[in-house]
């Protein structure tokens, strides 16, 4: 039995009285667990297993199985604000999907922490700020998974790049490419200096201004393509794509 901080990422009913949840935990990565009796009227889980709720999970880990047992969940922070608007909900679901798909082994709990902070930020933000906060958090998650893109130097020849230089972004190469290197990589996307500055600001944990729909969509697409290149197993990122489609 372990007790670890956790965030509810997904849940569905199982038989008459139970629920199966997926949790981003600090101590054990992303796990699936059965909460027996969670659907009973006076369940000890109460409303603690609502989507995106943080709490302390009491988990019995079964080393040989993928489904563990959740014996209790002490909710510490519900996030009803995330269900308040479509903009917030679809953004939170897009981040949750990244964790569900790729964060199975989160040895140091960093994914849990980045996600929790991002969900709080999105929940308290006006809708207009949600896209920027979400893409920024997604790049932080990608960084914690070990795939930070190269931005200050060419990902191929390692030459330092000038901040004003017009470069291209090569997904497979792993980041910005100088002009001669980009010429060898068909399909590398142009990355204007402002976009590179934005990515660098996010990598430092800072906020950046993204004020028009086109810029937001370009960043959403860049992140999705990068994740698909480095992390995905060929399956589409459905929640992320739904969030992208929902942008004005
Ligand atoms: Zn180069």
Q: What does this entry look like structurally?
A:
- This protein is an alpha+beta fold and 248 residues long.
- The chain has helices at 86-102, 110-124, 130-144, 179-182, 193-203, 213-230, 238-245, and strands at residues 2-14, 18-25, 29-35, 54-60, 67-77, 167-170, 175-177, 189-191.
- The protein folds into 2 domains: 2-77, Nucleic acid-binding proteins (OB fold (Dihydrolipoamide Acetyltransferase, E2P), Beta Barrel), CATH 2.40.50.140; 80-148 and 190-245, Up-down Bundle (de novo design (two linked rop proteins)).
- It contains 7 helices and 8 strands.
- Strand 4 and strand 5 (67-77) form a beta hairpin.
- The chain binds zinc ion.
- Zinc ion (ZN) is lined by residues 154, 156-157, 159, 177-178, 180-181.
- Zinc ion (ZN) binds next to helix 4.
